[in-house]
Write a structure and sequence with these properties.
This protein has six helices and 14 strands. With 245 residues, the chain is of the alpha+beta class. The strands form three sheets. Strands 1, 2, 10, 11 and 14 form a five-stranded mixed β-sheet that branches. It has a five-stranded antiparallel β-sheet with strand order 3-13-12-5-4. It has a four-stranded antiparallel β-sheet with strand order 6-7-8-9.
């Protein structure tokens, strides 16, 4: 157990908590996480490793009941998400001639673009998580998009062995957002098998977030914001053990 690192992070959190409301260093929904990392002195990165000395940081607004992203993982095969968008997407609200695909998928079928049903299937024999796509009449159109257990296990074990969940209250002053970080909880990952079980039960979902750039030099090009595996905060106890520091 990373006892020293967890204790150090708790002390850093208490220091930040005592600062009260601090000005956000970034606008938008990612501001709460980026501001906390800036207060820690952590540089931003896009690596698949934990944020802080082997501990993954997750920040949430105090009132939020939304899903938390565990990690991002595109399906096996090059440009599969773009292909899915081209074949099964729907028109963008602004650029009507361009397709987008923003959908959250579990093992329960969900209607997409009013024409298709998407759902996940856990194949324990093949050791794959498969995306099943059917038409409105139940005919399977394809089942070739998948995530291998090996890839998912590597990402999970690398990124989420230890997690710190930080809660913050937002406020606005003169159109500027401020955050007060008031609570931290520490968790340790249970097992990969539990992760797969929670997908099978529909508790963990996958979100495809494929849009288009609407302005600038990239206007009309695909904007893939990642394929994320997500879990609600109040279900953390199912995937993680609570650590008391």
């Amino acid at each position: 157990m990373r006892t020293k690192e967890l204790e150090n992070l708790k002390q850093e959190f208490l220091r930040i908590k005592n600062m009260g409301y601090v000005k956000s260093t970034r606008s938008g929904v990612t501001g709460v996480g980026k501001t906390f990392e800036d207060l820690l002195g952590k540089e931003e990165d896009t690596k698949g490793t934990p944020d802080y000395h082997g501990i993954e940081l997750k920040t949430k607004l105090g009132y939020s009941q939304s899903y938390t992203t565990l990690f991002n993982s595109t399906p096996e095969g090059e440009l599969e998400t773009q292909r899915l968008c081209k074949e099964y997407g729907y028109p963008d609200k602004i650029l009507r001639d361009k397709k987008v695909l923003n959908v959250s998928i579990t093992t329960t079928p969900i209607l997409v673009a009013n024409r298709y049903f998407f759902n996940l299937k856990v194949d324990y024999n093949m050791k794959k998580l498969i995306l099943i796509i059917k038409n409105k009449y139940g005919k399977i159109l394809e089942n070739k998009v998948y995530w291998s257990f090996g890839t998912l296990k590597e990402k999970l074990n690398t990124k989420l062995q230890y997690v710190a969940l930080i809660n913050a209250w937002p406020t606005t002053r003169n159109n500027v957002t401020y955050y007060k970080y008031y609570k931290i909880n520490f968790y340790k990952l249970k097992t990969f098998e539990k992760f797969i079980e929670l997908i099978d039960k529909g508790i963990i979902r996958i979100s495809l977030k494929i849009g288009v750039y609407r302005t600038g030099t990239k206007k009309g090009l695909y904007h893939d914001r990642g394929t994320s595996f997500e879990l609600k905060t109040f279900d953390f106890y199912q995937l993680f053990e609570h650590i008391y520091i």
